[in-house]
Amino acid sequence: MTANGRLRGRSLEPVAGNGLIDRRALIGRGIAFAGAMTGVGVTGAAAEPLTDAPWSREMGAVTPALQTPSRFEKHVVRTLSNPDNEFRNSHARTPHHLLNGTVTPNSLHFSINHSGLPDIDPDRHRLAIHGLVKQPMVYTVEALSRYPMVSRMAFLECGGNSAPMFSNEPLQASAQALHGLVSCAEWTGVKLSTLLEETGVDPAAKWFIAEGADSHALSRSVPLKKGFDDAMIALYQNGERLMPGNGYPMRLLLPGYEGNMNVKFLRRIKLVDAPAMSMYEARTYSQILPDGKAYRFYFLQEVKSFITHPSFGHSLKGPGFYEISGIAYSGAGRIAKVMVSADGGKSYAEAALQAPVLPKAFTRFRMPWRWDGQPVVLQSRAWDEGGNVQPTRAEFVALRGETKAPPPLLGFPNQHYNSLTSWAIDANGGVKHVYA
After folding, report:
1. How far lies 37's CA from each of 30, 46, 138, 366, in Å?
2. Residue 284 confidence (pLDDT)
3. 9 near 22, Cβ under 8 Å?
């Protein structure tokens, strides 16, 4: 046997139940998977000579000024909660089951707006910083653009993301419907600490109130220490100006904190000595726990993962080799490891983490898998660098409770769901959502 043959044999050996393969096979996948994909759309060149398709025999379209996806990708869109533009809040969910990598395209980044999208003229927009400061300041967009800028990858997640999973029965829904209120982007802007140092902070200040310029004037109280840590006034999203639905022309970015606190259309930061107890922090984001206490002022989005490929809405085209893939993230820092199971949690194998693994950002995990055509249950479980672990469903329900009926799509009053997601694959390759 050749050296390549020995490597292939070792790296494709199962390391956990139902065909999970050692993640190290992905390092040398050109060797390990050579020849293994025959029968899944890969054929020898001599068997089927290339022919010139119609698009290879004619001049193509003119390159547009603003590029959009191919017409063959028209199904890759966000789902909308308010398609008829009724007089209420609206949100759009990211199609995770149709994406890959770790960066969410701007056009597919999730968005929640409580009073529509304001049409803000950036030349007239202002940001005021006042309250318990020595020198109140007012900033224009142009003025902020002159300050030193920083860029960082960060996920944003609505506190109500995954809320349908509070139901005591698993909803038959895609990763988009269950987990579509989280996305990840590169954000560029001015560190809030730079502006706070410029205004001068009164020692009595412990919090600040961030307020948006939308007609709802959404506001949230934020601990001042977060403002001096990694908070940012974001002006750019993935290299271009913020999308209107994500806060144009500026928003507050609080890496790792629940989405509603990352106030969009930011127009005011007021330093205060105590939280404002606004509607969103006193009621909406303060769910009642099984012990009767309110889960209040808990801002961190906890460690979490879910498999995106394969998942509900996909269909496996027969037995053979596949890659199990998904995303993991933690508001407390970097992802340390992700374990994947193909037997509903009876056995696990460690997945490969796609570099770079960044703090408070999406990490893509990948696991090679040989499916034998028998029913399986796939799930993932994540750990972060602080030792925090994604809880099992039983552990989560004991602490946070569950409902006898599916919660509203936006999740109120159910918040901060971060337990495991399980996908059951039947012998025909169909995928269902299950609790395991």
Report:
1. 11, 17, 61, 17
2. 76
3. no
Q: Buried b vs exposed e over 230-243: b needs ≥16 C-beta within 10 Å? A: bbbbbbbbbeeebb
Provide the 10 A C-beta neighbour count for residue 16: 20
CATH of domain 126-160+184-284: 3.90.420.10
Cβ-based neighbours of 123, under 8 Å, separated by 6 or more? 140, 141, 142
Q: 349-350 and 137-140: which strand pairing?
A: unpaired
Two tokens, residue 358: 């960044």
Sequence-distant (≥ 6) Cβ neighbours of residue 321 within 8 angstroms: 33, 36, 37, 40, 368, 369, 370, 371
- Give the whole-angstrom CA distance, residue 29 versus residue 24: 9
CA dihedral (171, 174, 180, 185) in degrees, to 10, reads: 150
The one-letter amino acid at 289 = L
User: What pLDDT is attached to residue 2?
Assistant: 39
What pLDDT, on the 0 to 100 scale, is given for residue 40?
60
> What's residue 11's pLDDT?
59
Spell out the domain ranges in the chain.
Answer: 126-160+184-284
Residue in the block written with tokens 């049409």 = 119
Those residues of the chain that have pLDDT short of 50 are: 1-8, 30-31, 34, 410-411
Residues in the chain: 436
- Class of residue 342 by CB neighbours under 10 A (exposed 0-12, middle 13-18, buried 19+): buried
Determine the distance from the C-alpha atom of residue 206 to the mean position of all C-alpha atoms in its chain, rounded to a whole number. Answer: 30
Predicted local distance difference test score (pLDDT) of residue 41: 62
Count Cα atoms within 13 angstroms, Cβ side, for 397. 13
Residue 299 contacts residue 74 (beta carbons within 8 Å): no
Q: 369 - beta bridge partners?
A: 20, 322
Tokens of 54: 């119609």
